UniProtKB/TrEMBL annotation:
The chain crosses the membrane at residues 23-41, 61-78, 90-107, 113-135, 147-165, 177-193, 228-249, 261-279, 291-308, 314-332, 352-371, 377-397. This is Major facilitator superfamily MFS_1. It is a multi-pass membrane protein. It is found in: Cell membrane. Residues 24-401 form the Major facilitator superfamily (MFS) profile domain. It comes from Tolypothrix tenuis PCC 7101. SUPFAM superfamilies: MFS general substrate transporter (SSF103473). PANTHER family: MAJOR FACILITATOR SUPERFAMILY (MFS) PROFILE DOMAIN-CONTAINING PROTEIN (PTHR42910:SF1), TRANSPORTER SCO4007-RELATED (PTHR42910). GO terms for molecular function: transmembrane transporter activity. Its main location: membrane. Keywords: Membrane, Transmembrane, Transmembrane helix. GO terms for cellular component: plasma membrane.
Length: 401
């Protein structure tokens, strides 16, 4: 038996063991979710941060932008290491670094420190994208949608709860409170991973410079990778345009709510998160590209409802549910398209996909603040629909193979 066949056999065995141990699967889902949640804690807290540092809404809008730029940078420079290094130790070390950056954010004495610390917080929050490519690699293609969808359900639920929890903790303890709590949680997760996650050594012998060079090569050679990445980048850009401005709408005279209520709106999106496993099964049955088209229709409908009825509470809730459903369905479906392209390159394919995706998200965070300053809620919704229309043109006018 040659090395490749032995590797495939080991992957199959690892897959069976992983599914058989529900505690390990649960731990992986929690680790993915709570790591990436750190990127989103600041969204319901922006108004509190602006008051704390005595700065304008436009100035504080750079904080989520810097966090997501840092996240995209971490995806670019750290995630490819998953195709080269032993993943367990890499994940544990990233949790340790993440805990340190959370403390740095919590003790920020001024907006400059907060901006730099937020960048490094995003940079070190990429643990989920060390875990997901590993699971995709050892999962048979005909089950990949179901398995990744199950993990993504846990991840998305954590992201949505992040907004609610941070808003609630911010109300009780001030905005630094959530970062102190999360720093401790990251240490606990590192210990849990150390106990439960098996070692997983890559068969790749590529050097780090070769890994980085291969990113450009994969991007050039894979048109589906480019299409999926820019499609989700536009959708995520529109998504963040909404979320970074929601707190300003809720605190405006239209509603007169506080950051805690803004965070609670994350719970509304649980409807979309709960369907991730179903979306994964639909991808296995119908194909990822078709599901992406359906997801785009949902996202466009959600933003239309937000524009027409967003100043009424029930209309706002309905719009959030449909927008969340469209966003997460498109994210999952496009990600599965990418994982299916080149065997044994899942981490690097995921790197290209996620770097472009979060670059779009960072742009959306920045544009959202400016659109609110310029046009208030009408400006936010007009920008969101414009971005989603570009995504629809890219998708429906693109390749079908």
């Amino acid at each position: 038996m040659d090395f490749q066949e032995q590797s495939q056999l080991n992957d199959t065995t690892a897959f069976s063991n992983l599914l058989a141990n529900r505690t390990t699967v649960f731990t992986l889902a929690i680790a993915c979710g709570l790591a990436i949640a750190n990127v989103y804690y600041n969204q319901p807290l922006l108004a509190d941060m602006s008051r704390s540092f005595h700065i304008s809404v436009q100035q504080v809008g750079f904080i989520p932008t810097l966090t997501q730029v840092g996240y995209a940078t971490g995806l670019l420079f750290l995630v490819p290491l998953g195709d080269r290094l032993e993943r367990k130790q890499l994940i544990i070390k990233m949790f340790g670094l993440l805990s340190c950056t959370l403390v740095a954010v919590a003790i920020s004495p001024n907006i400059i420190w907060l901006g730099v610390a937020s960048f490094f917080l995003g940079f070190s929050s990429i643990v989920a994208h060390l875990i997901l490519p590993f699971v995709a690699q050892i999962t048979p293609p005909n089950q990949r949608g179901k398995v990744i969808g199950t993990l993504m359900s846990g991840l998305i639920i954590s992201v949505l709860l992040a907004r609610s929890v941070s808003g609630f903790v911010g109300k009780l303890m001030g905005w630094p409170g959530i970062y102190w709590i999360s720093a401790g949680v990251m240490i606990v997760l590192a210990l849990a991973i150390r106990q439960q996650l098996p070692e997983n050594r890559s068969s790749s012998q590529m050097s780090y410079p070769e890994l980085m060079q291969s990113l450009a090569h994969l991007t050039y050679q894979q048109p589906v990778l480019r299409e999926a990445a820019f499609n989700i980048a536009l959708i995520f850009c529109a998504f963040n345009v909404f979320w970074v401005t929601l707190v300003f709408l809720l605190e405006s005279p239209v509603y007169n709510y506080d950051s805690q209520v803004a965070g609670l709106f994350g719970l509304v999106g649980l409807v979309g998160a709960g369907t991730s496993s179903l979306v994964g099964r639909l991808v296995d049955k119908w194909g990822a590209r078709r599901v992406v088209g359906i997801a785009l229709c949902f996202a466009l409908s959600g933003f239309t409802i937000l524009w027409l009825t967003g100043t009424h509470l029930m209309g706002l809730i309905l719009g959030v549910i449909i927008l969340e459903l469209g966003m997460h369905s498109a994210y999952l479906s496009n990600q599965i398209r990418v994982y299916n392209l080149v065997p044994n390159a899942e981490s690097r394919l995921n790197t290209v996909y996620m770097v472009i995706n979060y670059s779009g998200g960072a742009l959306g965070s920045l544009l959202g603040s400016y659109s609110w300053v310029i046009g208030k809620w009408n400006g936010v919704c007009a920008l969101g629909l414009f971005l989603l229309s570009l995504a629809a043109i890219l998708h429906f006018g693109g390749r079908r193979k």
